[in-house]
Structures are given as C-alpha cells and as structure tokens.
Amino acid sequence: MKNSGNLLEKFGGHKQAAGFTINKNNIEAFKESINQYAETKNIKDLFEKTAVYDLEVDVNRINPEFVNAITKLGPFGVGNPEPIIRLNDLQVENPKLIGKNHDSTSFYSNGFNVVCFNDVEIFKSGIKSLSILTNLRKTCYNRNNIQFLVKDYKLNFTDNPSAINYKLRNSNAYEITEMISEYSHLEKLDRPLLVDIYKIAKLSKDRGVYIRQLLKRYNIRLFDLCYILNIFKELKLLDFEFNNDLIKFKALDNKAQLEDSKLLQLFKKEKYEFSGKD
Q: Which CATH architecture is the domain 161-270 placed in?
C-alpha cells in the first residue's frame, strides 16, 4: 500500500490485517498500481490461488464425535487457527438465499447444512456438486447438529455447463489458466474446429443443438465446448444459453478476429499454439 499511497486517503495495518480509505475515483488506478507492483516484485502468491487445509475427510465420517475431537484442539485464535477440513464431491440440495441482503447461500448435502457466504450467483446457475474447505460447527437446527461453514470451494465441472460458464466469466486470468490446465482435454485448439462449431451454432438458430451431439461429433469434453462458446461470446459473435440437454444460440451482428479473444490467448499460453490464420 505504501507504493500506491498517493492514491489513498489513509491506510495502515499489521501482520493480521490492513485497511485503507480511498476515493472511488481512484479505485481502478489503485488496482492497476498494486498489480503492477506485485508483478515487478514477482509476488506469485497474489496471483495464484492456493488452497490450504489441514485434513481431507470423507463426508460420511463426519459425526458429533468427530466435531468434538476437533473442538478439543481449541481454543482457536492467533497462533492456533481453527482446523480447515476438505470435503469432496458434496451434492447441492435445496439451495436458498439467506441473510438480510440475500448475500449468502444455504443448502443441504448428505443431511448436513452447508452455508456459503457471498458468491450467490454460482448457486443460481444450478450447480449440482462441489468440493469445499470448511470449518465445522455444532448447531441445534439440523438432524446431525453439524454445520459446514464454507471457507472456499471448487466446482465439479463434469456435468454442469452453467457452473463452467459462470466461472469462466467471473474468474481472473490466473484462475482461468488453472481451469484450462486441469479440465481441458483438447490436444489442439485450431481454427477449423472453432469455425465448424460457429457455423453449426448459426445454422441452428432457435432450434438448439443437443449438447451430447456436439461432444460426440468433435470428441471433446464439456469444459472445452463451454470454453469455445465463451470465446464466441467474448467476441460478441454469438450468445447462447443451456436449456436442459440443449444449447440455444443467438447470432450477433458483429465482426471480430479470433486472435482478439483473451480467452484464446490464455489457452495458447497455457497449452497449445492456435493454428491457422483469420
């Protein structure tokens, strides 16, 4: 913050926290300034998200006795942080918005109540499962008397196009690069593939195309199909929405060069060179 102090009204802090006051007209300049500073100092951790947890547990092993054992490790605070537990592949059941401003989400999984603060839009997108990092709490209003408070989460992309689209549109470049590395199964993102899918989208108009037909025809995974479609959306060549097993397209009156796509450039940087010219 000292490096960008000229953009702040005041600032201060200590090892555990920091704060500042800023004129709203300086927010964008401040973002650019601190990002540039971080890059020059090679502060990698600021750009690459790292999930840190103490224990990975099968959700079926969670019971009151387990929570009691965790509680005995307390009291928790500075120097003795509360343990963070990783739980994989939780099914999202009956999600609903909670809080005074409806800015948090509550849902059930395996009979446990799960609370996720913020990020309500991802649950509106219809996600079906996710893995979480959580603290455990005893409660008195669900049958297991245990509640999971989500510290962080990772979406399971295998069968949820809405979740993929949400993350692609709401993640920074580093997070998108991580998704490409983990979920993409394309050997090559070349011009013929993109052009062919674009032609099918335009020809289908309002009829829609079955997702499984596209996946089978091009031998690609759902993540890669969503990634390609979001390239077209980014360039304002077409819009689309998923409707159960169908994708419905809307062609947009715009001309663009494929190489202008930031998503395409990220893919090139992470995996393979884009072949062909516009």
A: Orthogonal Bundle (1.10)
